[in-house]
Amino acid sequence: MHCLSLNKLKLDFAFNASFASLNVAKVTMKEMGMQYPMSSFKALMTNSYIVRRILKTCGYNPNRILISKIFKDLSCLQRKTA
């Protein structure tokens, strides 16, 4: 939607990149067991990115096993409320 080019090759690349990112997101959602709309997945990835940046800026190295357990619990909670 953000490509303003009229060149056929550039448009072709933009469409392929868009569909590739959509397919990667769908595969990731399937592997995680998520049955959400794409907007929920986008919000989840945005929130994960923000948390990573905050932790990196603070210089804190979190326990990955604990974070993955919390993440699974929170994703199940989101499923129940949706």
* Class derived from helix and strand content: mainly alpha
In the predicted model, the low-confidence regions spanning at least 5 consecutive residues are none
The biggest beta sheet is recorded as: none
Any idea what the shape is?
elongated
Tally of separate helices:
3
Tell me the total number of β-strands: 0
Q: What is the arithmetic mean of pLDDT?
A: 76
Order of helices and strands: HHH
Helix fraction, binned, reads over 70%
Distance between the termini: 28 Å
As a percent range, the share of strand residues is under 5%
Radius of gyration: 17 Å
Please, could you describe this protein's structure?
The chain is mainly alpha-helical. It is 78% helix and 0% strand.
